[in-house]
Amino acid sequence: MAKGKGKRKVGAGDVASNRYASHRYNLLERFECGIVLEGTEVKSLRTSGAQLKDGYAAIRDRELWLYSVHIPPYGPASRENHDPERPRKLLLHRRELDRLAGRVQERGLTLVPTRIYFSGAHAKVEIALARGKDLYDKRQALRERDTRRDIERGLREARR
Hints:
Blueprint: E1 14-17, H1 21-24, E2 25-35, H2 39-47, E3 56-60, E4 63-67, E5 88-91, H3 94-104, E6 109-119, E7 122-132, H4 135-159
Antiparallel strand pairs: 1-6, 2-5, 2-7, 3-4, 4-5, 6-7
């Protein structure tokens, strides 16, 4: 009997993760950033999570901003709720931000959020400096995964 195609679990301690990012991009470098949230956004993250699939980060006016990340509205705060798709400011040291701004100017590099998690009471976002993969790179990654799976299956059957 085949396993169910239910929703995949995020890692331990993670609120949300972007598994699709490693398929679409070569992740070169990762950074941990703080995130500026409203009260209902924090409560919503603690209960239901977020969606990072189409999210990206950009540097505007020497500040780092997170765009297209969906944090669902918090149910009990019906009247005082936040906008689910609003841009959110990311907190990074000035030296790291300046270095990152120089790297993003290179052709083909972008900033992609890979996960949101809580470190103590503070919400953190892990962003990755990434280069987009070409179609043949994606096919090659799928082929490698299939061969690895076949090898593991063969080893499992040989152990029986």
